[in-house]
Write a structure and sequence with these properties.
The protein has one helix and ten strands; from the N terminus they run E-E-E-H-E-E-E-E-E-E-E. It is mainly β. It is globular, with a radius of gyration of 15 Å. 25% of the residues are buried. The structure holds zinc ion (2 copies).
């Protein structure tokens, strides 16, 4: 499958030749601030299936001490992707142009969600991160 995405102002775009995996939404206080929203919404991508197609020089980065980072458009502020040690490993669902044929599978860190958010009862949710597989 081929997908494309772009930021709000359209300066930066990318394409994905492959399938997105593991779409999730995180409601922790850090994601709320990073995504300026009630939660993050992102999916994993194979690094070699992802490429910038325009405006990569306008990207700006934020990287945590643990090596996890985000890349934004320096013109409009859209958060486009998540990185680990500088390599793109996930994309924000909000910047996709097409239907990715996946849905958010689960909501994590709902135990620390914003007081003003109402989450439907029907979604799969966990108070913290994903439970460890036993
Ligand atoms: Zn932009
Ligand atoms: Zn989070």
């Amino acid at each position: 499958m081929s997908l494309t995405g772009e930021c709000f102002c359209g300066s930066i775009s990318y394409s994905i030749d492959g399938t997105l995996k593991d779409a999730r939404s995180c409601h922790c206080s850090r994601c709320r601030k990073a995504f300026s929203s009630q939660a993050s919404a992102y999916a994993l991508v194979e690094p070699d299936e992802f490429q910038w197609t325009a405006g990569a020089g306008l990207l700006t980065n934020y990287q945590s001490e643990q090596g996890f980072g985000l890349q934004f458009c320096s013109r409009c502020g859209s958060t486009l992707c998540g990185t680990y040690k500088g390599v793109v490993h996930g994309i924000t669902l909000g910047c996709l142009n097409e239907n990715p044929q996946i849905e958010i599978g689960y909501h994590i860190f709902v135990g620390s969600k914003a007081s003003w958010e109402r989450l439907p009862d029907t979604v799969t949710k966990y108070p913290e991160g994903l439970p460890k597989k036993s």
